[in-house]
Amino acid sequence: MIDCDVHNDWASAQELMPFIDPNFRDYLERGELPGPTGAFPHAHRPWLHPEGFMLTDLTDDGHPGANFEVMREELLDRYNVDYVILTGEEAIEVSTLGNPYFATALASAYNNWMIETWLPKDHRLKGSIIIAPQDPEGAAAEIRRLGDHPDLVQVLMSSGSYRPYGDPQYHPIWEAAAEVGLPIAAHLGGQGGLNYNPIGCGPTTFFWETHALLCETGMAHVASLIAHGVFEKWPTLKFVLIECGVAWLAPILWRLDADYKALRKETPWLKRLPSEYARDHIRLSTQPLEQPKKRDHLWHILEAIDGRHTLLYASDYPHWDFDDPTQIKLPKEWHDDVFDGNARKLYTRLPEKVNGQQKPVNGSPDSSSTA
Amino acid sequence: MIDCDVHNDWASAQELMPFIDPNFRDYLERGELPGPTGAFPHAHRPWLHPEGFMLTDLTDDGHPGANFEVMREELLDRYNVDYVILTGEEAIEVSTLGNPYFATALASAYNNWMIETWLPKDHRLKGSIIIAPQDPEGAAAEIRRLGDHPDLVQVLMSSGSYRPYGDPQYHPIWEAAAEVGLPIAAHLGGQGGLNYNPIGCGPTTFFWETHALLCETGMAHVASLIAHGVFEKWPTLKFVLIECGVAWLAPILWRLDADYKALRKETPWLKRLPSEYARDHIRLSTQPLEQPKKRDHLWHILEAIDGRHTLLYASDYPHWDFDDPTQIKLPKEWHDDVFDGNARKLYTRLPEKVNGQQKPVNGSPDSSSTA
Question: In terms of CA atoms, which chain A residue is nearest residue B164?
């Protein structure tokens, strides 16, 4: 008798360590895996981060975001932060699941867990209602269920998606968000599974190549939300792009304005230029802020989108590409708005500033001189 | 007897005209169709151009590009053009076909037809060798077959693709191009069929929305070619992006440089920053040149990629969004390079300039003053 299919297994994929090309050992040792150490890399997305996503010097267990004491010390107290908007970690990945009911159940579990175990830790913590956009009715119900909680300041999902977010299938979500008066945010992530390849012309190869290009999801959502008239339908709605970069917005809006002018007949419900909708409705978080050789090149392009009033400071704590607020290079006269004022205008549930005064950020921000 | 499937047909989809919502009549009358007038719109790509791609005032038949007399009068003579690089019309769409052998056969047919019926018309016409990138061996053979023709100045394919062009599957093509000494160009197009959705987060809806975002394919090819070390492997190779826009390049390179610095271990074969490879190996055609409200915003961002030496003037004749050379808004001191010098350096088979003099472009280009 010959048995033609018998599975020989390892107890842990770590057993491969002595056998793999040394150049790739780090991928197994510290890199992105679809599970705990010892999991075998399978391409839940085609490209894996070779070093993992976390700042490794904060905690020994590889989960600094799970340790509030460290977060308080290393982020809240160190930089004298008034409020931080919590965005979860893996929870936005619910958008990749084909089963919409399970996806909403997981999002809801995150929201309950965050409300019960995180918000009571510190009055400076504010939460996001995470939703599964592939389940618009379930997402809308979740927004209405939690929408009057005073410490939840936005609705959040991944930038990876099955369709660009202007599509009518998502409108029940925007309707619910407008009803409860919360902004919508899309955070970089949610690639793989149900969602489309996030980059034009197919799967990319390396993490650094891919990470630089993931802003393409942000571009598509901005264009789609504007084109479908979402901001005409819900004039109070704001849309925040988190971790998608900022410098590309002006070039994309120039293209959108030109193409809209030529073919606006396709979208007769629009009354203004795409760039005008963007100015009023789109907000961008700063991390990772682009760092050209000549600072002026960035500042000029940000001036074209009124960056002073559309950018929101974000650190991305505790991720590998964390932006230290004392190192952000933006015009000094923008600091009050970008580090504080713009977020307070957007997240209307945050308390007013006492005396209207901006507290100084700890450290010595001195970023107004040109490089 | 009941027959449950009998097909009732129209002789032409034009019969639907009296029955369709008037807002959409233009889509059927003048818009993009998968065949001649009377074809029924099916989504060979998800979004259809509502007015068609051609300048409609040049000829009555809707095929101005097929009429050389009109091209000579309206383009070559009118603007006093020394040379035009022909890029075909539908031929680059061979990249969308699943059958690689048929795709190469069609590309080859275009090349033979162009050499036999177009190049003899006028010494100012120069050709591109169109290839089917999904058939790398066939493409390489086609490049070697035609590579020594003195009037063929580049290898051309669509920007839409199955994978970003740095992928090893395409390397036989770059090998052949380097061997015959021709630059490679990717022209906007080739969406649908075999190729990936060209825009992050899935199919878009409207043509103007989509057209503005199609630059995402260019971003991915630039990143991929650099990351895979194509320009280390073939140091003489140049890569031209045609009709993908230009202003986005600087922001994308800033992101690529930052991510490469952090994770360059993934690509140990690279010796320089992504932006440095781009400066030496990537060229961009100008059409459609972005038109911000403040011209300075564009000029600054182009300065960041040394636009004076990396941009190539292109009109996109006879397409709907044709750029008139007398209306291009670039710094006056860049004109000699962008309108002439950069193309002669890239397309080395073009004759040297007589007396090294730039002939004036007909019309009155006066674009150096700020808007």
Answer: A201
Tell me the shortest Cα–Cα distance from A156 to chain B, in angstroms. Answer: 16
Task: Name the nearest CA neighbour of A82 among A363, A369, A357.
Answer: A357
Within 8 A of A189 by CB-CB distance, chain B residues are: none
CB-based contact A290:A244 (threshold 8 Å): no
Question: What tens digit of pLDDT does each residue of A281-316 get?
Answer: 999 999 999 999 999 999 999 999 999 999 999 999
Please give the residue of chain A at the shortest CA–CA distance from B192.
Answer: A201
Which residues does chain A have within 8 Å of residue B303's beta carbon, measured at their own beta carbons? 297
Distance from C-alpha of B346 to C-alpha of B334, rounded to nearest angstrom: 16
Alpha-carbon distance A159 to nearest alpha carbon in chain B (angstroms): 8
pTM of the full structure: 0.91
Kindly determine whether residue A265 and residue B50, on different chains, have CB atoms separated by under 8 Å: yes
Structure tokens belonging to residue B79 = 């603007």
CB under 8 Å to A185, separation ≥6 — which residues?
A87, A128, A154, A155, A156, A157, A239, A240, A241, A242
Q: Number of C-alpha atoms within 13 angstroms, CB side, residue A246?
A: 33
Cα–Cα distances (Å) from A121 to A62, A70, A77, B45, in that order, read 21, 13, 14, 51
Cα–Cα distance, B314 to A130 (Å, whole number): 46
Alpha carbon distance A255, A275 (integer Å)? 10
Contact A125, A156 (CB under 8 A): no
Query: What angle, rounded to 10 degrees, do the helices at B215-227 and B249-263 form?
Result: 30
Nearest to A217 among B200, B207, B260 (CB): B200
Q: For A151-193, what is each residue's pLDDT tens digit?
A: 999 999 999 999 999 999 999 999 999 999 999 999 999 998 9
Q: Is A368 in contact with A331 (CB distance < 8 Å)? A: yes
Q: Which residue, among B187, B201, B299, would best test binding to A if mutated, counting the most A CBs under 10 Å from its CB? A: B201
Residue range B352-359: average pLDDT? 62
The beta-carbon neighbor of B206 closest among A217, A227, A300 is A227
**End-to-end CA separation in angstroms for chain A:** 75
| Complex prediction ipTM | 0.89
List chain A residues with CB under 8 Å of B267: 206, 208
